[in-house]
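Question (not urgent): is this output format expected?
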Amino acid sequence: MTFPEPTDANEVAVRRFHAGGSEIALFEFQGQLRDLMVSSLRNSYLATGSFTDDARTLSSQGVLSLAVSGAAVAGTTVASALSSTLYMATADPSTLMKLGSGVGSTVMGAQGFAAQAPFIAVPSALPVVAPIMAMQALTTVIMLQKFQEVDRKLDAIKTTLDEAIARSEATHVGELLTASNVVDELYGQYELAGAFSNDMLIRLGLAEHRVRSLAERFQLLVGSHAAAPIEDLSDVQQANYDAYSAALASFLDLRIAYLRVCVDMQENPKSVQSSVDRLKSKIGNVTDFWQQLLNRSEGVRAAIRERESRLNDMNWAERALPAGRRSATEKELKVLKEAYTTTMESERDIIEGFHDLIRSAKHTLKALEHPDLGSATSPTLVYWQDETGEHSFATESIRAA
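Got this back:
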């Protein structure tokens, strides 16, 4: 993203807000510079369908709350300025450091130098605290960036699960694979468009309902297999199929929780915190469940040791009688050893990917619990009004420096 260089100087007002242990800077572009930037963004949208390659549509309340707060402290009205101002908000530490002297010089796009104008810090007699809506918008985008690490690990083993489930015959397999395809399509559409259409919202709601039901079903089945005795090798094969299905359903449930946060950032800003809390809760719960899936063979191994111990403890009569306890225990032991081998093979298919996924999920959850507003990957929030309406999005492709 590049902006044409203005032909004359334009001053850009910069307001600084305190946000916990960090700061947020709000840049107010007006006049010719604002018009040139808006024109460049419009051209990018017409050419590519997006204002920037990584633009993610947001509710306008985050940036507007900063604009209103800044105007209130200055004793001015914001209503008349909205139609003639392009706002950019960021907590990027490199930007704030360069503003330390009160003056900056350039606006950077994705392809380098973009536009130049003096940044004039707006003085304030008292520290101005950033509104909660603005802090929430920035921290939520940062947290969703952190989730991408988990998402890449999910992709690495999801194909294996899809193939394993597709080989099985079951009542719910079609529904689960269909939901998997729908979620993949929604992911792809959101990555391209950076916004949710009405069609996408409807499809997400339908997929969310079905996936939650299937995830609950398969998790209950996994628990029932752990408690039930193994009587036949077919029991183990069914248990492995249910474990694969439970894992895939948990992946989809987690991805839908991520998409729900993205939806709320766009449509329901007041619900963002609750959807973020649900995402964190799901990551914590599903990590424990994935660990349980990796340890299924341990339960079978414990049963084998118990049968072997039982054989060793039998007296002479129990060992000698052909229809006695020895014969029954040896049959059980044979089935259990076959079950152990089959379960180990099942775990081996996904164990490497799962270990990486669990480590990544734990690391991500820690980052989500303590988001760093002033991190190096802090995004820029952009907002303006024009004859077509309001435009508000988050991006890392535009920087004020």
